[in-house]
Automatic annotation (TrEMBL):
GO terms for biological process: methylation. Keywords: Methyltransferase, S-adenosyl-L-methionine, Transferase. GO terms for molecular function: nucleic acid binding; protein methyltransferase activity. Residues 19-85 form the Release factor glutamine methyltransferase N-terminal domain. It holds the Pfam family PrmC_N. This is Unannotated protein. The keyword Methyltransferase applies. InterPro entries: DNA_methylase_N6_adenine_CS, HemK-like, N5-glutamine_MTase, PrmC_N, SAM-dependent_MTases_sf.
């Protein structure tokens, strides 16, 4: 891509000029947070923290061209996180890009619920499994915030795996210093605990299973352009009613969890308790052990798998995730 320096200048000779112009253009195409995005793009191109932008006034022609290239992509609705190459999640930074789902702030509450319960477990029993791990946001947060924990991050997508491996590797030393470890497993979240599969040996031993699975019905089109055009379809769509992978996660969690172990699973705000049997809480309450689950656990066939099923709201007061205990 070639950008003429004179064309990018356009009277914008200072950082303040460039920020003002970038915000105006981003706002014109409907970017939800044009001011913040403009500041991120400019600070990234200049190689300085956002909070130091006001101390920087001079800008070179090369920097201006760099900003224009990034801005052009953002104007075409390429996610900001893809341009920056990373995103923040709770206390960690994660590398993200095409092929892996960008973790959202709402999922931080899902991680928080899992972290709180895992902390209460005695050392030696702090075993967790993150199903549909994606970038590793939840799995790495568990390991970083709960000392002496062992977290198994399960992801099936070949496109997401490089990001999961990269993020786990980049936090490896910090995790080790805390006595924690994140083990990456490429396998199907719906069958990873079946006989002969990687997590079969952990049946009945896991304290916490957490998941942010795909839950959008196949026929739905996401409103956000960035989600629709740039997020991996495997991380979004969950079958005709959006619940195919959710049901598989509930089954895997039933096998893995120790009696009384905690399940935490994210869902859309229209898939909460009010949705009845079309929602995650309703499906979780109604799940009955079949003969296969009974053979792999101590749950008698024909009896409920989960108890204490409850829905939790996000910071906007919307139902966001379900928690439950294995009987």
């Amino acid at each position: 891509m070639s950008i003429d320096i004179e064309r990018t200048r356009g009277g914008r000779s200072t950082v303040r000029d460039v920020l003002f112009d970038a915000e105006r253009r981003l706002n014109a195409v409907g970017i939800p947070s044009p001011g913040a995005d403009a500041a991120w793009i400019v600070s990234f191109a200049l190689g300085i923290p956002r909070n130091r932008l006001i101390l920087q006034d001079d800008i070179s022609d090369e920097q201006r061209v760099h900003i224009e290239k990034l801005l052009t992509q953002r104007l075409s609705r390429v996610p900001l996180q893809h341009l920056l190459g990373s995103t923040g999640f709770r206390r960690i930074d994660l590398a993200v890009g095409p092929g892996v789902f960008i973790p959202r702030p709402e999922t931080e509450l899902v991680a928080e619920a899992a972290i709180r319960d895992l902390r209460e477990q005695p050392i030696g029993s702090r075993i967790a499994v993150d199903l549909c791990a994606g970038s590793g946001a939840i799995a790495i947060s568990l390991g970083m915030e709960v000392e002496n924990s062992r977290v198994h991050a399960v992801e099936f997508s070949a496109d997401a795996m490089p990001w999961l491996n990269r993020n786990t590797k980049s936090h490896e030393d910090a995790l080790s210093a805390l006595g924690s470890r994140v083990v990456v497993i490429q396998d199907d979240a719906e069958h990873v605990a079946d006989e002969g599969r990687p997590l079969a040996r952990l049946a009945g031993q896991v304290a916490v299973v957490v998941s942010n699975p795909p839950y959008i019905p196949d026929s739905m089109i996401p409103r956000e352009v960035e989600v629709r055009d740039h997020e991996p379809k495997m991380a979004l769509y969950g079958g005709e009613d959006g619940m195919n992978v959710v049901r598989g996660v509930l089954r895997t969690a039933a096998i893995l969890l120790a009696p009384g172990g905690l399940l935490v699973i994210e869902h859309a705000d229209v898939q909460g308790s009010d949705a009845g049997m079309r929602g995650v809480p309703g499906i979780t309450k109604a799940m009955i052990a079949d003969y296969e689950i009974a053979a792999l656990t101590d749950i008698p066939a024909g009896t409920p798998v989960y108890k204490d099923v409850a829905d939790r709201i996000d910071l906007n007061g919307l139902p966001r995730f379900t928690i439950a205990r294995r009987v």
